[in-house]
Amino acid sequence: MTSHKGRYLNILAFIPNMSNSILVLRKSRKAFLIEYGCAAFLLGLLGVTRLNSPLPQAIEYGVLGLAGVALFSAEISRLTTRYKIREDKMEIINGFIKQDKKNVYYHPLSFVPDLNIKQGRIGRILDYGSVYLKAGGETTFEIKDVNSPHEVLEMIENMIGQNRGGMNKIKED
User: Model's pTM, two decimal places?
Assistant: First the structure.
C-alpha cells in the first residue's frame, strides 16, 4: 500500500483562513459502497432487462426510484455531517437547516489520552475509518467514516500537543 502521509498537510496552504479553520472533513464516499453498488446493480439490471424485453413503465419507474433513493440517501448522509478542525477546537456539525453543533476544545483533551481509530476490514483495505475519543467510559466525540483516519488522528494529537504546550508556557510564567 502506498503511504498517504502528508496528504492533508499539503492542502493546508490552499485553505483560506476561515477563522482559523485548518481542515474541513466529510464522510468518505467509500463508506457508502453498498448504497452505490445497489444503485448500480438496479440500473444495470434495468438496462439488461430493457434490452431483452420491455418492462411495464411502472416497474421501470419503481426501479429508477429505488436506485435514486439509494444514491440520494448516501449523498444526504455524507453532506449533512461536517467536521472542522481548527487551531484551538474541533467542531462537529450535523444537518442543513436544523443544525446540531458540538465544539470540542483541545485543552481539556490534553488530559485524556484515549484517542482511537475504528476501522472494519473493508475500511482498512480502502483506508477509511472513524476517529473517536473516550473519556470516562463514554464517547466524547467521533469523526465517522473519514479518509486516512491515521492522518486525522495524528493531526488531532498534534493540535492537542500544541495546546498542551501553550498551557505549560503559561504555567511557567
Answer: 0.70
